[in-house]
Design a protein that fits this description.
single chain, about 170 residues, alpha+beta, 2 domains, 3-stranded antiparallel beta sheet, about 60% helix
Length: about 170
């Protein structure tokens, strides 16, 4: 298609949500229709709920295993911190390539909020679940409790990120 017939997309708020409006043009360059797609760069309450459900998907089966509890008690803290760092790295890459790759400029803060939100929600969901089943010894051995939460948050945060992608 010749360069003069190309039209650019626009960003518009429809029903409170941002959407990308892409015009469809015919061979003469006349706009014949528009395609509307959600522009998923803002973090909304719905996204947080999806993160919570997504984190639960893997937090439950992983957090309910004795192997995870033993690993939390025996793995050195620096290894657990490395696992937390790898989690943040994976989440950041996934979020960047699925939400912000072509629209990072101007949405840096939203990117940071989404990455921190995904990991934070996963940590909270895991901490609540492990506390309910009495496998987070808060007040008795906080280090073991934190290690167990971070270990289980690795897969939980990945499932939270994937579920956040669903719209």
């Amino acid at each position: 298609m010749p360069e003069e017939h190309k039209t650019k997309h626009t960003i518009q708020r429809i029903g409170g949500y941002l959407h990308r409006i892409v015009p469809i043009v015919d061979s003469t360059g006349q706009v014949i229709s528009h395609v509307t797609r959600p522009f998923m760069v803002e973090v909304r309450a719905r996204d947080v709920m999806q993160m919570m459900v997504g984190a639960s998907i893997l937090a439950i089966p992983v957090g309910f295993t004795e192997e995870t509890w033993t690993l939390g008690a025996t793995l050195p803290f620096r290894n657990v911190l490395a696992l937390g760092f790898v989690s943040l790295l994976f989440i950041s890459a996934f979020v960047y390539f699925n939400f912000y790759r072509f629209h990072f400029k101007g949405y840096h803060w939203e990117f940071i909020k989404r990455v921190v939100g995904i990991y934070g929600v996963a940590l909270i969901v895991v901490a609540v679940l492990l506390t309910i089943i009495d496998k987070c010894p808060w007040g008795i051995d906080n280090l073991v409790a934190m290690k167990r939460v971070i270990i289980v948050a690795f897969p939980a945060s990945m499932s939270a990120a994937v579920s956040d992608l669903l719209k």
